Structure formats: structure tokens, C-alpha cells
Amino acid sequence: MTSLILFGVFAILLLINLPIALAIIFATLVSMLMTVDTLPALTTIAQRLTAGIDSFALLAIPYFILSGYLMGQGGIAHRLISFSKVLVGRLPGGLAIVNVISCALFGSISGSAVAATSAIGGFMIPAMEKEGYKKPFGTAVTVTAATTGMLIPPSNILIIYSLASGGVSIAALFIAGYLPGILVTVSLILAAVLYVKRNNIQTLSKESIEPFFPAFFGAIPSLFLIFLIIGGIIGGIFTPTEAGAIAVLYSLILSLVFYRQITVKDLYPILLKTVNTTAIVMLLIGASSAMSWLMSYASIPQTISHMLLTLSENPLLILLIINITLLVVGTFMDMTPAVLIFTPIFLPVAESLGISPLHFGIMMILNLSIGLCTPPVGSVLFVGCSIGKVSISEVIKPILPLYAAMFIALVLVTMFPAISEFLPRAFGLI
Fold first, then answer.
1. Which residues cross the membrane (predicted)?
2. How far is it, in rounded angstroms, from Cα 87 to Cα 83?
3. Each residue's pLDDT tens digit, 3-13
4. What's this model's pTM, rounded to 2 decimal places?
């Protein structure tokens, strides 16, 4: 009864477009009022809202959000695009490949798929149209490739999964995201190349590609951030939270002093956007903590686990059911609340089948990344269509092969845990 009330009220509130954090809080409150006394219910929710965000690891989130905004306005995108052109611009489908690689690089540096879509798409979508690509396809490439930054660190969503899973190592998650992120990137590149060959689009001319060394040296300071953050975490020089602070300092120096793309006056609106985004994320985390407590109190995860395990003891079949569920969830729920709500439900099932929390987390993030570029609530898809000035209906046809590429990558990551676990194991993190 508790689960029916909880998820029923939650669904109704979502249908009337109540902000998801408030929907979580009100659904939890209604369910608790019907199972415990009024005063304990209110007290418990207040306690869980506070306890949910009382974590040292969460301090990394506002730091990485701020560094992402600094990178987004600091002249990084143009230099990464120039560097990608030098690397792959002369290959068949060169500009589409440049788009994918640029989005992956910028997404990993900024930690935001929306930022990657805005920064890279604003330049690449018109450039691809000029070279003979249809605008809907350029938009489709941008929005799908931008999601790879959710897997390639530093990634805020991996930090949130660490919290929701009960403490999976953030460093291990960061390292684990590399191979799956590269796999998705390569899959999208292959899909884009097939599109180019089918439509006989010409490669880039030599005149449109900068000389190698200026492009290479221009991109080095931006790319060094990845090595600085990950190298420092793996080497034990600093924690992920401290790495976030270092990322802010490095991004500030790079954007303000080295590239000189922003001024001191630009810092106030950047800080304001950081505060707004951080407040939304923290409210979601606190609200989801209250819902997770109620689900645990009502034994909802254990009940769902028992139901799934009675269907089959085959791990691949259970993972298929979980993946299908998450794919559906990702089409109408943003990634952060989905991770916070469904990790406590599905992770115990995965662990009972011998699946590591690390592997499950990477699989879950990859799965929900597809939802970022899927209607009806794909935030990255909406941003991309706005930048490309195309409708969602126009993008659906060219984006289908790219969806297929991401699904294939998801299947491979699901079936072969070594893709996620090889690097963390090699570095002694698991």
C-alpha cells in the first residue's frame, strides 16, 4: 500500500508539471502521513532533507558546476574544435567526427551535457550545414555526442551515484567511465560515417583546417585539466572534492588570464548560475534522501528485488528488465532524480546476482544518458533543437541511427563488466 501511494502520488504530481523535487517531497509526505503519525512524518522529512546533503563528497558538485560554467564561457570550445579538425578533419565524414569528438572532450572537461551542446552546437551545427550536412542531422550528432561527458570524468552524476549507492569510490567511478565513454564515442562516430557515405558528403577542404601546431598547442591547456584532475585523484594527491576546487582555480586562470575570454564583470552572472544550479541539485538530493528512507522503511527495494528474482535467476535477463525500465524512466525523468530514486531499488537486485556496484553504476549512467536526448523530457535534445533552430520532429529520423549506436554500446557495457572494471582494477581502485 505504501508503494502504491508513494509512486501513485508521485506520478500524478509529475503529470501536473510540479517541479520534480517538490513532487518527491509531497509524495513522500503523503505516504508517511498514511503510515506514521503526523509529527514523526514531518520531523523525519526535515531530518532526511538535511542529512541527505550533509556529505563532504557533495562539496565537489558546486566546484565542478562552477568550473564547467567557466569553461563554457572561457574560449575552450573553439580550441577543442580546431584540435579535433586537425586530428580527424580530413577523414570521410570529418566534420561529423569533429563534432562528436569535440562534444566528448568538452563534455568531459565541463562535466555538463547541456554545456557541451550549447558551446559546441552553436558553432558546429551551422558549420556542418555549410559543408552539406542537413541541419537536423548536425543537431542529432551534437545532442547524442554531448551525453558522453556524463561518463567521461569529471562527472557530477557519478558523484551523485556514489552517494546513492552508499559509498562506491568516486575515484573508481571516474576511472571506470573512460572505456564506456570512449565506446559510446566510437559508436557514434561509426554511425555518423555511415550516414556520410550514404549521402555522399564531401570531406573538409585543407583550407578549412588550421595548421597542426597552433591548434595542438591552443588545446593543450584545456586538455591538461583532465590529466590534472584524474592524475591527482589516482595519485592520492587530493580527494575528488579537493579536485573540484582545483578545477575551479585552473578554469578561472585559464579563462580569465590565459585565454582572456571572460572578464571580472562576467564572474557575477557565472557565480549566480552556479548557485542556482547547485541549489536545484541539492534540493533534489535532499528530497530523494527522504523518499529513499521511506522506501527502505516500507521494504520496497526488498520487495521489488524478490519479485525480479522470482522471474529468473539469469543475470542478463534481470539486467535486461532493469535496462528497459531505466530507458523508459529516462524518457520522462531527468538523470539526477532517476539515479537518486532508482539506485536504492535496483542496486540490491544487481548485487544479489553478483554484479558489482561499480559496473551497475556505469551501466545505469549510460542508460540514463540516452534519456537526455530522448523526448518527451530530453533536456539536451531541447537545447540542441533550440540552438539548431529545428523542431524535434525533424530530428527524430536522423537521430534514430545514433540511438541504435548508443543502444549497442549499452548492450556491450551490460554484458561485459570488464569494460567498466578493467581500468579501476588496473589502478588498484577495486
1. 6-35, 56-76, 96-125, 137-164, 170-196, 216-238, 244-262, 274-295, 315-332, 339-358, 364-387, 399-419
2. 6
3. 788 888 888 88
4. 0.83
